[in-house]
C-alpha cells in the first residue's frame, strides 16, 4: 500500500491543468442537467398543485419513482436499458438522467415555495382582474423563486457532485480522467487529489454565485 510519504506530490501541480478538458465535460453535464431539471421541476410543480387529478397523480408518481431510486440506476436504465427502443449516446444520456433526477427534487422545492406564498395574494391579484396565469407569473412566482434560491443552490451543488456518475458510462469527465491517469501513472491518490481540488474549486465558485444571487434578491426587496 502506498504511504503518504511515497506520494509524488510534485505531480499534482504538474498534472492539474491536464484535467481542464475533463472539467469542461463536468461543467457541461451539470449545466445542461440543471437546466433540464429546472424546466422539468417547474412543470411538475405546477402539476402537483393543479386541481386536475390526472396531472397531479402523474406528478406524484414521477416524484415517488425518481426520489425512491438511485441516480446511478436511472442512468443505467436510460443508457443501457432503453437500447431496445432507442440508442442514446453517453453525453445526452448523462444529461437526461441528471435532469430527470434533479427535476423531482426541484419540483418539490418549487411546490413548497409556491405554496408558502399566502393565498391572499392570489385572491387580491384575481380581484384586480388578473388571470390565474398572469397572477402566478407576476405576483407568485417572483416571490417563490426568491424563497427557493437557497434550497435550489444546495440542489445545484449536489447535481455538480452527482455528475461524477457519468464516468460509469465512459464520459471523460473529472473522475474518469483521474482513474485513467491513475492507472497509467500508478499515482492513483495524486490523480484523485487533483479531481478533489477541481470539485472543490467548482463547488466554491457555485456557492459564491448562489450567495451573490441571494444577497442581490434580498437587496431588491428593500429597493
What does this structure look like?
The chain is mainly alpha-helical and 223 residues long. It has one domain (4-221): Orthogonal Bundle (MetI-like fold), CATH 1.10.3720.10. The protein has 9 helices and no strands. Helix 2 (20-48) packs antiparallel against helix 8, helix 3 (53-67) crosses helix 5 and helix 7 (132-162) packs antiparallel against helix 9 (188-221). 31% of the residues are buried.
Tell me the helix content: over 70%
Indicate the mean pLDDT.
91
Note poorly predicted spans: none
CATH topology assignment: MetI-like fold
Quick synopsis:
The chain has 223 residues and is mainly α.
Task: Supply database-style keywords.
single chain, 223 residues, mainly alpha, 77% helix, flat, MetI-like fold
Secondary-structure topology with pairs:
Blueprint: H1 11-15, H2 20-48, H3 53-67, H4 71-79, H5 90-116, H6 119-127, H7 132-162, H8 174-185, H9 188-221
Amino acid at each position: 500500500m502506498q504511504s503518504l510519504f511515497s506520494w509524488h506530490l510534485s505531480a499534482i501541480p504538474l498534472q492539474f491543468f491536464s484535467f481542464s478538458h475533463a472539467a469542461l465535460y463536468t461543467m457541461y453535464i451539470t449545466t445542461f442537467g440543471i437546466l433540464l431539471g429546472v424546466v422539468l421541476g417547474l412543470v411538475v410543480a405546477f402539476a402537483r398543485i393543479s386541481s386536475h387529478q390526472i396531472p397531479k397523480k402523474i406528478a406524484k408518481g414521477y416524484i415517488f419513482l425518481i426520489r425512491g431510486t438511485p441516480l446511478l440506476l436511472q442512468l443505467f436504465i436510460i443508457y443501457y436499458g432503453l437500447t431496445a427502443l432507442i440508442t442514446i449516446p453517453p453525453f445526452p444520456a448523462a444529461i437526461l438522467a441528471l435532469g430527470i433526477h434533479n427535476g423531482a427534487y426541484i419540483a418539490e422545492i418549487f411546490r413548497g415555495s409556491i405554496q408558502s406564498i399566502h393565498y391572499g395574494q392570489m385572491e387580491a391579484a384575481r380581484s384586480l382582474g388578473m388571470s390565474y396565469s398572469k397572477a402566478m407569473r407576476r405576483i407568485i412566482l417572483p416571490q417563490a423563486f426568491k424563497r427557493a434560491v437557497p434550497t435550489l443552490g444546495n440542489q445545484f451543488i449536489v447535481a455538480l457532485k452527482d455528475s461524477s456518475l457519468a464516468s460509469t458510462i465512459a464520459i471523460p469527465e473529472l473522475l474518469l480522467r483521474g482513474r485513467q491517469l491513475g492507472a497509467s501513472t500508478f499515482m492513483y491518490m495524486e490523480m484523485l487529489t487533483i479531481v478533489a481540488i477541481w470539485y472543490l474549486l467548482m463547488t466554491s465558485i457555485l456557492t459564491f454565485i448562489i450567495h451573490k444571487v441571494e444577497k442581490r434578491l434580498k437587496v431588491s426587496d428593500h429597493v
